[in-house]
Design a protein that fits this description.
By secondary structure, the chain is α+β, with helices and mostly antiparallel strands. It is built from seven helices and seven strands, in the order αβααββαβαββαβα.
Length: 188
């Protein structure tokens, strides 16, 4: 997925994922055009022939690659839903877009993430560590990270993504001894 089409494809997948099942009126054999128009109406894309064509190409690509299923309901309507492969793609998009939101006012609580992932799960351990660094967690020790912002949902998502729930703990602490360096890093 590249460029503008990539963004449109991602938006289509996320829309279908949030809706679970999308029903589209197909009053003509050009139901993809109707679907594209419905998507433009509900999203940030301006109505143009170019955007309509991009959406149609994305839908065809998603269908061809078994990421979505278009099903004729026989009453002039079609449904659009994700396949298992499509749900995996949505999870990848959510992983890419994952971020920890900085609070306007710090609640004076530290979120400490610890993990002890066994050697036979080294790839998952390294990937989790890498993603936490990317998300700007402060590494206190090799498998101990700190963050001053609420991040429990994001950490649980990562645990599910890497299948490491039983190896990860989230601690919410009001004090870390000698946290001056941490406060400087997070500008608190």
């Amino acid at each position: 997925m590249r460029g503008n089409n990539s963004q449109i494809t991602k938006e289509i997948l996320l829309t279908v994922a949030m809706a679970g099942l999308v029903v589209v009126a197909a009053t003509s054999p050009y139901f993809l055009i109707n679907l594209a128009k419905a998507f433009i109406k509900n999203k940030k894309y301006e109505k143009s022939k170019q955007n309509e064509q991009r959406i149609i190409r994305s839908l065809r690509h998603l269908k061809k690659n078994n990421i979505i299923i278009l099903k004729d309901l026989g009453d002039g309507n079609f449904t659009v839903r994700l396949t298992e492969k499509g749900r995996g793609k949505v999870e990848e998009i959510n992983f890419e877009r994952l971020e920890i939101k900085k609070q306007d006012t710090w609640d004076k609580k530290w979120r400490i993430i610890t993990f002890d992932i066994p050697e036979n799960r080294k790839a998952a351990r390294d990937a989790l560590r890498g993603k936490m660094k990317e998300l700007k967690f402060y590494q206190l020790q090799k498998s101990v990270f700190a963050c001053p912002y609420p991040c429990e949902k994001e950490i649980l998502f990562l645990c599910e993504f890497f299948d490491v729930f039983k190896f990860v703990d989230i601690i919410i602490a009001e004090k870390i001894h000698n946290d001056a360096a941490l406060r400087r890093v997070f500008k608190l």
